Amino acid sequence: MLIALCSVKGSPGVTTLAVALAVKWPHAGSIRRLVAEVDPAGGDLAMRFGLSTTPGLVSLAAAARRTRHSSVVWEHTQVLPNGAFVVVAPPGGAHARAALSTLASAPDGPLLPAVARDTGVVILADCGRVDPGSPAEAIARRADALVLLTGTRGDDLAHAAARLGELARWTPRPGLLLTGEGYPTADVERELGVRTIGRIPYDPDAAATLTGHRPPPARRRGDGGLASQATALAQALAGPAAPPSASPPTSIFGEPDQQVRRPPALITTPPGRPPIPAPAVGPQRNGHGPSATGKEPFA
Ligand SMILES: Nc1ncnc2c1ncn2[C@@H]1O[C@H](COP(=O)(O)OP(=O)(O)O)[C@@H](O)[C@H]1O
Ligand SMILES: [Mg+2]
After folding, report:
1. Would the CB of 12 count as within 6 Å of ligand 1?
2. Which of 16, 129, 134 to mutate to test the pocket of ligand 1 (most atoms within 8 A of CB)?
3. Where are the domains of the chain?
4. 16 C-alpha to center of ligand 1: Å?
5. How far is the CA of 208 from the centre of ligand 2 (A)?
6. b vs e for 269-278, b when ≥16 Cβ sit within 10 Å of the residue's Cβ?
């Protein structure tokens, strides 16, 4: 299975989400989870986790010139502390773009989607910001599902709105995922005319841990919401085969009686294609944000 994760503006937490999903993927012990940094702006995970930049995306691209066997991908992985594999990208955008372009021009298409078709494999492809013409597009278009993570300020949403229709056509299961302290989820859904698949809470401690920086013990206050949301989202992405968790995650925003179980959902779903079901977590931060002023996001 190949899950593409992307943004269209800023740095909303795509890389953090990719690692979080790998950590929380159902049956992680029996699934080979691979975080692939296919971000044309370059990678962060090698630096964050103290890994070498080789093997990684650049060595994989070189190997792709010599072989069509997708299994070669595994020779260019390293292992994250949580046991997931990772293909790290070099920090420099120029090298990452060149490597991605090489991978995209492989005769049988990029190797990553091919290896993602193997049983018991899930690839979380961190596509970064997918500007028009991004060399990560060839991988994202072959994904089983695409998650667009966006902030919820007016400018974030304007950028998301401009690309929604196009991105929704890239994969069978597109999903819009919100983050940040902007407009409430209900306002975003109304203005964009789409359902969302959830909202990633502001959780700096969990984010720091997932990005290789353990917060000081005094700041470890337990689940700030990111872990729960990632668990729910991973289960939704993994599909109906994944059993529900023993204890359903709860939202850290709003009391249970304020939570709304969202309908199946998404950007727009082409006819006959199943959407990603919304995780069984209520919307976050409803009731907060600029719309309380009555101002519309896209005025
Ligand atoms: N849910 C979150 N809550 C708080 N901070 C976050 C969250 N997700 C990411 N961050 C922080 O934001 C910064 C950018 O995250 P990153 O995942 O690298 O974003 P992107 O890949 O979209 O550029 C990092 O310092 C990370 O720790
Ligand atoms: Mg990133």
Report:
1. yes
2. 16
3. 2-293
4. 6
5. 14
6. beeeeebbbb
pLDDT in tens, 246-263: 333 322 222 222 333 333
Strand partners, 178: 150, 199
CATH of range 2-293; options 3.40.50.300, 1.10.10.60, 3.40.50.720, 3.40.190.10: 3.40.50.300
User: In this structure, what token pair is assigned to residue 80?
Assistant: 């994250």
Percent of the chain with pLDDT over 90: 68
Residue 85 DSSP symbol? E
CB 21 within 8 A of CB 233: yes
Mean pLDDT of the chain: 82
- b/e 67-90 (16+ beta carbons within 10 angstroms → b): eeebebbeebbbebebebbbbbbb
Across 197-222, average pLDDT: 80
Q: Which atom of ligand 1 is nearest to the CA of 211?
A: 27
* Class of residue 107 by CB neighbours under 10 A (exposed 0-12, middle 13-18, buried 19+): exposed
- One-character DSSP codes across 217-250: GGG--S--SHHHHHHHHHHHHH-TTSPPPSS---
